[in-house]
Write a structure and sequence with these properties.
heterodimer, A: mainly alpha, 2 strands, globular, B: about 280 residues, mainly alpha, 11 helices, about 75% helix, about 0% strand
């Protein structure tokens, strides 16, 4: 088990080195990609700074708590985009052309090979930038940080990334039947747009059930909310526990669905 | 009357007929993907739910019920209306397509046929927009019916409707020619995709798609209102909300017309100059 984990970690590192070398051979493009991400972060900050110029809080989150939330979303989204988005995007094309055959023949776990093959280094800077925003927000909030909240934050941050990955894997698996996945990627964008706001905005007769549904049934609202709340809000142990259970269930269910989808794969070759 | 004078209207008529045929063919092609269009439109409605909830939370946290001249209902109506503005002004794939034609040499298809590239692209885009407006009319009508409570300023008068329609049509031309200009940069730089990403990301904010420009500090609001990007989202929305009237409305529409003509002329100049540099190889 440990030897296998080491083998996969080494393989991932090698794939990472290879994609970095490839990316750096188009340095100009790489630098512009990074500039776009920096610009997007500045736009988000400008947007919420403007908003907080006119309001004191959004659904109980004050300015710097909310900025921490924005930083957490930015880092988490950056992590998913760096590691998985490009790979999942390409899956439908592998199915359509039949090139998936070559990956299935390799003596490596299919899920690992399909979803971790490439690292999009152009998005990698989002992770430290997001952590930078979180760090600055914590500084602005002031006061001592509860030492317990840091490991809880890191644990729920990883859990959030795992839940988001599970949703992406499930949507990707559908490509086996649908072949074209443009709408699926639009669905992913919709999922991530749900994760970018605090759970507390879902109030009222029609919004409340939506909030409950996306917290407890399709738990996309846990992804950013729980780690952010663990660090700058009230630590709710029940939500932390539920997030960890949801992570295990989502990872297991998405893997089972992925393997089921692969069984339905009929090669495109003649 | 000389033959030249008689020939000019005939040649113009032939030219209009030619581009009208391109429009018709493109429209038929676009309508073939109507279900994809419809699905895309419906999916795009869903983030509006979170946007509405976010702004409700923002107004709840503020002390004033009116922010930068917008009440909560007006704010949500504005955000819904910017989607209509974007239907007209956004041109997905236009600049990238032009740059690709230049890079890969497929631009020559316009050079060896009696078709002007910009004329062809205008006809094609108009067909695309017509198809989009026709197909998305029903879901949008449903959306606006469901959200009718947010439009509490009363039914706009006829003049406002006319001004709104004009502002949307001009938004199409500002958006179209602006993107054509960005695509033409491909004559000088082979790779413009990255530049395009920067422009589009920035445009999302400075066009007022995320929030009304009036929310920004006065200097930035005035600065951005002097740029053409406001016409791609902000301006048509505030026109129909009745926030721009009388002299300001006339000045705004003239400004929009100015930018449409400016980008049209710039696109033509860049195309003419670019063609002088352009060279295509291969069989």
């Amino acid at each position: 088990m440990v030897a296998s984990l080491i083998k996969y970690a080494r393989m991932w590192a090698s794939l990472g080195r290879y994609t970095l070398a490839r990316e750096l051979s188009f340095r100009g493009n790489f630098l512009v990609k990074i500039s776009v991400e920096i610009l997007w972060l500045f736009i988000l900050i400008a947007f919420f700074s403007t908003v907080f110029g006119r309001t004191k809080s959004i659904a109980g989150w004050d300015e710097w708590q909310y900025m921490f939330f924005v930083g957490c979303f930015f880092a988490l989204n950056g992590l998913i985009e760096t590691l998985f988005l490009d790979n999942c995007n390409e899956f439908a094309e592998l199915v359509r052309t039949g090139d998936l055959d070559f990956l299935l023949l390799k003596p490596i776990d299919e899920q690992f090979l399909i979803t971790c093959r490439r690292i999009d280094w152009g998005c990698a800077l989002n992770i430290p930038m997001g952590f930078g925003v979180m760090g600055y927000s914590l500084y602005k909030i002031g006061g001592p940080v509860d030492p317990l909240s840091i490991p809880i934050f890191l644990m729920t941050f990883v859990s959030g990334a795992a839940i988001a990955y599970s949703f992406m894997l499930t949507l990707t698996s559908l490509s086996v039947w649908m072949v074209r996945n443009q709408s699926l990627m639009e669905m992913w964008w919709l999922f991530s747009s749900l994760a970018r706001y605090p759970r507390e905005i879902f109030v009222g007769t029609w919004a409340s059930p939506i909030g409950v549904f996306f917290t407890f049934f399709l738990p996309i609202l846990l992804v950013v909310n729980v780690p952010s709340q663990a660090m700058v809000g009230l630590l709710d142990w029940r939500m932390v526990g539920f997030t960890l259970i949801a992570t295990v269930l989502c990872l297991g269910a998405s893997r089972a669905f992925f393997r089921f989808a692969l069984k339905s794969y009929r090669s495109a070759s003649s | 009357m000389s033959t030249l004078e008689l020939g000019a209207p005939r040649s113009m008529y032939r030219s209009v007929r030619k581009y009208a045929k391109i429009y018709r063919a493109s429209l038929v092609e676009r309508m073939a993907y109507r279900s994809d269009f419809l699905l895309g439109t419906v999916l795009r409605f869903l983030p509006m739910i979170t946007t509405i909830l976010l702004w409700q939370a923002i107004y709840k946290g503020g002390e004033d019920s009116t922010q930068a001249g917008f009440r909560l209902n007006e704010m949500i109506a504005y955000l819904l209306l910017t989607n209509i503005s974007r239907i007209f002004s956004s041109m997905p794939g236009l600049a990238g397509g032009i740059a690709r034609d230049i890079r890969e040499g497929t631009l020559k298809k316009y050079l060896i046929q009696p078709i002007d590239m910009i004329g062809y692209l205008v006809s094609y885009r108009m067909a695309h927009k017509t198809a989009y407006v026709v197909i998305s009319a029903l879901p949008y009508a449903l959306l606006f019916y469901v959200c009718r409570g947010f439009f509490d300023t009363g039914w706009p008068d006829l003049l406002t409707w006319v001004a709104y329609l004009v502002s949307l049509i001009l938004a199409f031309f500002v958006g179209f020619y602006f993107e054509v200009c960005v695509g033409m940069v491909g004559f000088w730089f082979l790779e413009v995709t990255s530049l395009l990403y920067i422009v589009m990301t920035l445009n999302f904010f400075i066009s007022g798609h995320m929030l009304p420009l009036d929310f920004l500090p006065p200097f930035w609001a005035s600065f951005l209102k002097a740029l053409p990007f406001q016409y791609m989202a902000y301006f048509p929305a505030v026109v129909v909300l009745g926030k721009v009237r009388g002299q300001d409305l006339a000045i705004g529409l003239l400004g929009e017309l100015f930018w449409a003509i400016f980008f049209m002329m710039l696109a033509r100049t860049l195309y003419t100059r670019g063609l002088r540099r352009y060279s295509a190889f291969g069989g």
